[in-house]
Amino acid sequence: MYDNQERKRRAVLVGINSRDLDDDDFDASLDELAQLVDACDIEVLTTVTQRNPVLNKATLMGSGKLMELVEVVHMMDADLVITNEPLTAMQIRNLEDACKVQVIDRTDVILEIFAIRARSREAKLQVEYARLQYVLPRLSGMHQELGRQGGASGSLSNKGSGEKKIELDRRIIEKILSDLRKDLEQCATERRTQALKRSNSGIPRISLVGYTNAGKSSLMNALLRSYGSDDKDKQVMEGNFLFATLDTTVRSIQAPGFRKMLISDTVGFVSELPHTLVKAFNSTLEEATYADLLLNVIDYSDEEWPKQMNVTLSTLKEIGAGDIPVINVFNKADLPRTFRDEQAPESTLPYVRKDRDTVNIYMSAKYSIGLDKLIELIEEVLSKGHVQCSLLIPYSDGAAVNTIQTHATVEAIEYLPEGVKIKATLSNRDYGHYKKYELKED
Ligand SMILES: Nc1nc2c(ncn2[C@@H]2O[C@H](COP(=O)(O)OP(=O)(O)OP(=O)(O)O)[C@@H](O)[C@H]2O)c(=O)[nH]1
Ligand SMILES: [Mg+2]
How far is the CA of 150 from the centre of ligand 2 (A)? Predict the structure, then answer.
């Protein structure tokens, strides 16, 4: 929690519409920036915008806009300026000179959130790696700047002392980065070994993916409350701020009459997730690539959901999880919608809509509406390529009964004098193992 003794940092945001976004999109991107800043526990004082800019290499904005910014910063006694556009080293220096306060960009904000939230050793290493990687090219930006100052003729041999210091910093950072890379590789190897163990267990793996704040952790907790252990410690953290989750958590659930499943919750996505972060978090995100099925959790109360969904789909492709079957979970469908949607659900939840290529469910993780329906859909998708059969397993092969009960969906089970009669849906692999017990007359 925020400590009142210390003054909360106060920022002026700068929104430059450099990408020719229409007004609504531009406003939405600034809203998201404000939410990111809020997640860093920084107060947003106001936003200075420039809607039709010619990007200025030295100061990002034109001189008139810069004068306005300086005045606002001064009047509102801000501690910080935050821009939506990525800044070069030169722009930072010039803006800081003009505004007399620290100047950072959206990527810095995301990196700071990640640094605050990282809990596990791996997440901390990943954040550190991403931060240093973001700093490096900016050092070389400064390097060029100072180089020009150091030697009036621009001669490379005439190095200023600032430039030497930067070179030294650069070498130190490169050394730290290489050490971090080794540590991260070690973590990734451990993670892969665990993932392999899980995949050999034959228990299907389901990954929760989606835009940050969509409700992935809430859905995980709801599933755990209904179908997992009662142990409170096993709940994952959920919260109404961006990037509540950074670490991967895997838990098992089993709904009555269904097989056991492993569910994993992990870091959410955001548009223009800094590339250094995607790279640094690759092994965490990798969890999704091992899944048999992805639940793409969408915040259906947010008008921006189609764009957010596209971000999720393209991030999944980028990490190599683009071909895994998906169920779209339109979450927060309990909240009133302020936008038109041709395919809006009927008033009663849960509502399932299947198209030729997609399976969609409208539900609410927070109020546990639609969990049983979701489990049915999961089962249905997982069962594609599965075989429904009746088996008579002799009492001598108790292990087979156990395996089937954990791996497969058991529709009926009967204890007969000659053995255990089970009607179940088996994966092709398990069917191969146990078809010797198949009862043909069923
Ligand atoms: N009204 C409503 N709110 C929900 C629902 N599901 C989640 N929320 C709220 O949405 C916020 C974000 O939920 P989380 O579960 O932390 O979201 P997340 O996707 O795990 O977010 P990150 O970990 O930050 O990526 C919390 O305040 C939840 O209480 C829902 O079905 N309905
Ligand atoms: Mg979460």
Answer: 49
Query: Residue 243: CB within 6 Å of ligand 1?
Result: yes
**pTM to 2 decimal places:** 0.75
Q: 238: Cβ below 6 Å to ligand 1?
A: yes
User: Alpha helix (H) ranges present in 343-434?
Assistant: 371-383, 398-407, 428-434
Q: What is the CATH number of domain 203-383?
A: 3.40.50.300
Whether 360 contacts 305, CB under 8 Å: no
Give the Cα separation of 173 and 163 in Å (integer): 15
Query: Helices (DSSP H) in 100-209: which residue ranges?
Result: 106-117, 121-150, 161-200
Q: Read off the pLDDT of residues 300-326 as tens digits, 9 standing for 90 and up.
A: 999 999 999 998 898 888 888 888 889
Q: Where are the domains of the chain?
A: 10-114, 118-188, 203-383, 387-437
- Name the amino acid, one letter, at 227: Y
- Helix, coil or strand: residue 424: strand
- As a CATH number, domain 10-114 is 3.40.50.11060
148: its two tokens: 């020009």
Residue 371 beta carbon below 6 angstroms from any ligand 1 atom: no
The CA distance from 345 to 262, in Å, is 29
